[in-house]
Fold this sequence. Notes:
The protein has 205 residues and is mostly beta strands. It is built from two helices and 15 strands.
Amino acid sequence: MSERAAALSRRAILTAGLFLPLAPGLVMAASKTLAFAVFRNGSKIGEHQVVFNIDGGALTATTDATMTVKIGPVPVFKYHHRALEKRSDGVFASLVTSTSTNGKDEHVTAERAGGVVHVDCTYGKTNLPADANPMTHWNPQIFGGAPLFNPQTGKILKVRTARVAPNHVTIRGEAEIDDFYDEAGAWQSLTGKLDDGSKVEYRRV
Length: 205
């Protein structure tokens, strides 16, 4: 894998599918589907969609993200991430993901039970703190100081998060990402910097 492709791969992990304390139904009040076009240095490289199903206090979010970067006609980076996340009364319950990055496959199964979050992933099995959340950017509830784990690898992320404005959250550390939300808490856009210095943007469509 080229250095450029490796940099894209590391950041795709954190942006595919990345908060404020809102009621679980309020976040999705405006729409049950969030769709984004993904850009790198102004050129479109993919799409990211989250579809929600709400049943009382139970929320299921299905994420599908696809990205392809080309140099001329030649693809140098191909990425596909799928995730099924469940939350109960705003609390993380479970996550199942599958990811393909330039042909490398990864999987994560995580479930909150017995006072911990049990994780079974490509890299083995582990237990995370009970308040751990996957860093799925659609949910502004998760950026409140609780541990965040990578939905692609199942590993705890070394990041700091801060609310710098009512609808703006910054993520720094392993990632350099800014998330933006509307007044209801629905995810509107994302900007970030890749390891090679290029800029990634999510623009809602």
